[in-house]
Amino acid sequence: MRLLTYNIHKGIGGRDRLYRLRRIIEVIENENPDLLCLQEVDRGVPRSRLHDQPKLLSEQFFSAGCTFQLNVRLKKGGYGNLLLARWSFTERHSISLGLPGKKARGAQIGIIDSPEGSFRFINLHLGLGEQERHQQMGHLLSHHLFRRSQGLPTLIAGDTNDWRNTLAEGPLAEHGFQHCTHPISRFRTFPAYLPVGSLDKVFCSSGIRISNLRVVRTKSAKAASDHLPLVIDFHCD
């Protein structure tokens, strides 16, 4: 199976600042994923022509499994996280990771009964402060909606904003999650046109076997967003 995680930056290019959702679609299409963890997806916002991006993307890719989490509300519309899957969800949940005085953030849980068995995948977008990120991850891992399916093989993916790469220790290690996007020198994703930061990360539990993990560094990916996407090929053991 193949999962792609991608901060699409509302479909706005990182350098030219032009809104071109078609570029995002082409980047994703070229990788042919089964599962999508997308962040910064607009719905009804003037900067993106009032497009309902969750609807457009689900129609373009997978309508079987689709769930949108609106995190940031603007004067008109807002943006958040989008989970898409080739197979229907048996469960899907949204968890707020917002903290007082900070920009709203969130995580999504999707549980899939795939051809290789049941597993769950988590899509998240964490805050800009290091302490904030650790609090958010701790909240997610201790949340009752996360704990009740903790026996399933699990992939956690998304934009962590973890510049100093400190999240792999602490709660993630204590819960048995392995940092897959390591060494960080191989997984730099931001900014897309000249990546220096490994901000987009993947963690997995036992029961997940990753066969390939890479950054998409195509010319189109470098133009479509301010982040580069990650592609994960994996199996459920």
Assign the CATH architecture: 4-Layer Sandwich
Quaternary structure of the protein: single chain
Number of strands: 12
CATH class: Alpha Beta
Strand order of the largest sheet: 3-4-2-1-12-11
What is the general shape? globular
User: Uncertain regions: pLDDT < 50 for 5+ in a row?
Assistant: none
State the domain count.
1
CATH homologous superfamily (4th level) name: Endonuclease/exonuclease/phosphatase
Roughly what percent helix? 10-25%
| Total of DSSP H or I helical runs spanning 4+ residues | 6
The main sheet comes to: 6 strands, mixed
Strand content: 35-45%
Order of helices and strands: EHEHEEEEEHHEHEEEHE
Condensed summary:
With about 240 residues, the protein is of the alpha+beta class.
Characteristics:
237 residues; Deoxyribonuclease I, Chain A; 6-stranded mixed beta sheet; 19% helix; 36% strand; globular
Describe the structure.
- This protein is an alpha+beta fold and 237 residues long.
- The protein contains six helices and twelve strands.
- The radius of gyration is 16 Å and the shape is globular.
- The two termini are 12 Å apart.
- The model has no long low-confidence stretch (mean pLDDT 96).
What secondary-structure arrangement, pairings included, does this model have?
Blueprint: E1 2-7, H1 21-31, E2 35-43, H2 53-60, E3 65-73, E4 78-85, E5 89-96, E6 106-114, E7 117-125, H3 130-142, H4 144-147, E8 154-159, H5 171-174, E9 178-179, E10 200-204, E11 208-215, H6 219-224, E12 230-236
Parallel strand pairs: 1-2, 7-8
Antiparallel strand pairs: 1-12, 2-4, 3-4, 5-6, 6-7, 8-10, 9-10, 11-12
